[in-house]
Design a protein that fits this description.
This protein is α+β, with helices and mostly antiparallel strands. Helices cover about 30% and strands about 30% of the residues. It contains 5 helices and 9 strands. It has helices at about 25-35, 60-75, 85-95, 155-165, 175-180; strands at about 10-15, 40-45, 50-55, 80-85, 105-115, 125, 135-140, 140-150, 170-175. It has a 5-stranded antiparallel beta sheet with strand order 6-7-8-5-9. Strands 2-3-1-4 form a 4-stranded antiparallel beta sheet. The chain is globular, with a radius of gyration of 17 Å.
Length: about 180
C-alpha cells in the first residue's frame, strides 16, 4: 500500500504577466498548467499572477524553477516566479507591518519578494531623495515599502527596488493583494 506524501500550501508570485496588454496569461490556462504539474487545490488571485496551491515538497527553489520553466514553455516568454510557503504569507499578514501607517488616497503600501536573499547597499529604513518612497523593512527575502504620491507625481519606487535588489529576482504586490491572499 502506498501512502500519499504530506502536502504543504504555497503561494507563487509571477512577475510581469498581464501588465499593459503584454505577456498575457489567462488565469484558466494558468490554473490548468498548475494542475498538469500535479499541484492540488490551485486557486488564482487577481489577474496579476498570484497562485495558491498544494505541493508534496518543501523545496521552494525547485517549485520556482519548475513553475517558471513550464510557464515559459507553455506561453513562449520567461515568467520569473517566486514561491513562498502559505505559512510565511500568513505570518506576514498577522504581523500587520503597516498598522501604524496612516493610509490616505496618496499612500501605497507594498510588499516585495526576493527570489534569493540579497543585502542592499543601503541602510534600512531608507528614504528616496525626494521623500516619496520609503523602504521600512528588509529581511528574510521580504521588503516592506511605502509610496507617497502626494510628494512626487513621478516616483521612481519600483526602479529603486529593482536597482537595489536585481530586477529579475524581485516582484512586488500591493498590501491589499497580500490581504486577499
Amino acid at each position: 500500500m502506498t501512502s500519499k506524501k504530506e502536502t504543504k500550501r504555497f503561494v507563487a508570485f509571477l512577475r510581469g504577466i498581464n501588465v499593459g496588454g503584454h505577456h498575457k496569461v489567462p488565469m484558466a490556462d494558468l490554473k490548468q498548467l498548475m494542475s498538469t504539474l500535479k499541484f492540488d487545490n490551485v486557486v488564482t488571485i487577481l489577474n496579476s499572477g498570484n497562485i495558491i496551491f498544494d505541493a508534496e515538497t518543501d523545496n521552494t527553489e525547485n517549485l520556482q524553477t519548475t513553475i517558471s520553466g513550464n510557464l515559459e514553455k507553455t506561453f513562449g516568454f520567461p515568467v520569473p516566479t517566486i514561491v513562498r510557503s502559505a505559512e510565511t504569507i500568513l505570518e506576514l499578514y498577522q504581523k500587520a507591518p503597516f498598522q501604524d501607517v496612516e493610509v490616505t488616497k496618496d499612500i501605497r503600501l507594498y510588499v516585495s519578494f526576493l527570489r534569493q536573499d540579497k543585502k542592499p547597499d543601503h541602510e534600512v529604513p531608507w528614504t528616496s531623495p525626494d521623500g516619496s518612497f520609503n523602504i521600512i523593512e528588509s529581511n528574510d527575502r521580504i521588503i516592506l515599502s511605502i509610496l507617497d504620491l502626494s510628494v512626487s507625481k513621478t516616483p521612481k519606487a519600483m526602479e529603486a527596488l529593482e536597482k537595489f535588489y536585481e530586477k529579475k529576482n524581485i516582484t512586488t504586490r500591493n498590501w491589499k493583494t497580500i490581504e486577499r491572499i
